Amino acid sequence: MANLRDIKRRITSVKSTQQITKAMKMVAAAKLRKAQGKLLDARPYAEGMNTILGHLAARETDIKHPLLEVREVKKICYLVLSSDRGLCGSFNANVQRMAKEQIDAYDDDVAVQLINFGRKGFEFFSRREYDIREKYQNVLNDLNFSHAQDVSRLIRKDYENKDFDQIFIVYNSFKSAGSQVVLIDQLLPVKPDDTVGKNKGYESAGYLYEPSAQEILDEIIPKNLTIQIWRALLESVTAEQAARMIAMDAATENAQEMIFNLTLHYNKARQAAITTEISEIVGGAEALKG
After folding, report:
1. Fewest 10 Å CB contacts: which of 54, 117, 140, 223?
2. Which residues contact 79 (CB under 8 A, 6 or more apart)?
3. Can 88 be counted among the known catalytic residues?
């Protein structure tokens, strides 16, 4: 009977875990809808800013800006976006692996520093003794635009002071609830996508700028940097909630399968125990007759 009690106790434990994973799935689904709404609002604006820069790149070849300056690469910074909490499948492992592969591929004469967004990424790279420039933790549940502004000011100052020659951002891009793709984008020096302007015929259009193209560029480039960071943060947060929802759904289904198997095992053990008791009773009765 002790075996039966152990099985029943385990069934109760798995049912409790299933209730927790089911609740976490519902919470993640609600957060996903909210995050996805913010992301869909931010994407057109971010793409529009890139289009304007592409327009200027297609039209103006002599424009200058400190954030456009290309230097010999000796010092690099990676902004790695992870999560503050686990239970989200391979979400963190994918972005950590991608960032680690990129960093480890550099020669020893290239210095690499990290800016970690999310506790999981910070813990991963600090344990491996990577050089961490800055960390942002416990802000993703209440993410707002000021966080993107803070990071943008930090890396812009570092680049203008020539503390870094290149700055990249590594993050999970949200495609759908079941699909996230790890991307690496170059933030600095800014690389205007001049193909955008050329594909739309901007290089031959007779545009007049008011104020000058240089003044427009001076205003747009810092703003575009902030917007691209903000978009990447929203992509990462949305992808995290999608990954957590899928992971908790799989955990709930696995718990249900485990409950079924344990119940079957319990019934077999109970039937065997009853059969044994009946055999003992019959044997005892036969012994009394003899």
Report:
1. 223
2. 114, 115, 117, 151, 155, 167, 168, 169, 170, 187, 229
3. yes
